[in-house]
Amino acid sequence: MILLDGNLFNRKVLMQLKGTSRVSGLAVSIAKPNPPQGFSPGLKCPNDGFGVYSKDYGPQYAHCNTTVWNPVGSGLSYEDFDFPIFLLEDANETQVIKQCYQDHNVPRDGSGPEYPLCAMQLFSHMHAVTSTVTCMRRNSIQNTFSINPETVCDPLLDYNVWSTLQPINSSGKVDREQEVIIVATRIDSHSFFWNIAPGAESAVSSFVTHLAAAEALHKASDVHSLQRNVMFTFFQGETFDYIGSSRMVYDMEKDKFPLRLDNIHSFVELNQVALRNGSVLWMHTDPVSWMNESVQTQVRNLLDILSNSSVGANVTLQEAGYSQPLPPSSFQRFLRARHIPGVVLTDHQAAFQNRYYQSMYDTPENIRMQYPEGLSPEETLEYVTDTAKSLAEVATVVARALYRLAGGANNTSAIQADPKTVTRMLYGFLIKMNNSWFQSIIKPDLKGILGDVPQHYVAVSSPVNTTYLVHYVLANLTGTVVNLTKEECLNPDKTPNAEKELYDYAWVQGSLDPNSTTRVPYCVRSTVRLSKALSPAFELRQWGSTEYSTWTESRWKEIRARIFLVASKELEIITLVVGIAILVFSLLATHFINAKADVLFSIPRDPGAVAY
Fold first, then answer.
1. How far apart are CA 421 and CA 209, in angstroms?
2. Phi and psi, residue 158, nearest 5°
3. What are the distances in angstroms from CA 124 to CA 13, 81, 196, 559?
4. Claim: this prediction has a pTM higher than 0.70
5. Pick from 30, 33, 495, 552: CA 20 to 30 A from residue 62's CA?
6. How far apart (Å, rounded) are the C-alpha atoms in residues 310 and 412?
7. Tens-digit pLDDT profile for residues 381-439
8. What share of residues in the chain are helix, strand, coil (percent, to 5)?
């Protein structure tokens, strides 16, 4: 059993440990501060093979031949280790293990260590084996022939969150003539360790900026008369080969979604925007579809509008170049289905600026979030950081560009993202979910989702906390408070003029009444909806698909660890021998007592009794 310093947790060391049979488990103490050289257990070419580039489409760009996006990626998350690996986040836990070792296992006076010795045991048994194909086949056999089937793995699944600037009928189909601009981002992250996925730069920075842009655009006075609609989309499961975006494209193609691919006018994606060099934000486009003259004209217009929207702002938008492919992005899944004009906005021109992509070190510190010492939780929630100001500037540029793309002709100076809203979201999604603002905007029966430590792993039980919170934050920022009672809000079908096909209604907790401990709830009407984020491979039962994501998560009974003292071999042998001796003696005694039972347990006659 090995206790490993976080700075030594790298591919070289783990491959050496994997190659020996002497290792039965590994406990990793988290490195503080973060490793300066960077750490990413993801691939050097994230989501390789599931984007748009292949032997049939831009083969020169496939497999990151032109640009290695994640150069520090070690691929550890994709290795198979036959021993459990645990992360120790609490320094006290690490110290307890070290102290136990030093007290009992360190040799004294040049001699070997004396018993009892300190030992550690890790429990992490997984039911699934080999691959998704194998475990899903076993699931299928169990469900077919067993009365009490035992599931060994589950597909990763959740929900995408989406809403529109102008309401659309969620149960019908949008007219083919109506054009819609999609603005998208991912809301999930990942790390080597289960349920630890802070994703500050890889996910949170972009979807917080997206939410702020949605709020800013909704405040424009003429949004309901714009020529084109805008759809705000938040994809789940993108870390695992584009689960959310591939499912939405699939549903659009199968007419299971209100929009068709033909309705999409253009596509704008936010993808890692917090680590800018100076004020520069890079605009990435697809060099293959650029060769299409019609698409090129539309992309050129899109780039010009974005660039012009940054004039006067502290953000400078520059083109990444036409000889470079798109970075890993949800937009690639839409391009696989249709040539769509689109742009991906990032803080990197080529390789990621993020040195902790898909790792437990992608924390608030990674995006330079800093707070003065001595602030209370409420003061920290409201404190506007420099990071929040920077992301609010990006959100302002995006909102103004979307307004122009949608056909807006008025002055855009009034469209301004709120840094205070951004700082609240950063605090809630990265530091403490259980805060007063999040408490006020969710339903009363969802209080349990507000854990202390935010994490953004997609998981197998849905919706996950992140999905719920993005849903209600988006509803709060873009929705309208309506004067309905609780019964009317919860049952819009029975409420006149509710237009449930166009709107979603939510009865939320509200803020605390200043003069009491009770809350003042209210009803929010918005266009926010959820759509399934489950890979089409599982509906098609194509568990070995190379077209769609096939990620599953193994089931397990428990994950736990313990440290204890182990006696010497001699003491163990003595204990065993004594135990055997006691067992033999017990058997002999039992046999003797049983054989002499009539003598030992006979009832003596009463001497006063007379027989006749």
1. 10
2. -170, -150
3. 21, 12, 16, 5
4. yes
5. 552
6. 11
7. 999 999 999 999 999 999 999 999 999 999 999 999 999 999 999 999 999 999 999 99
8. 35, 15, 45
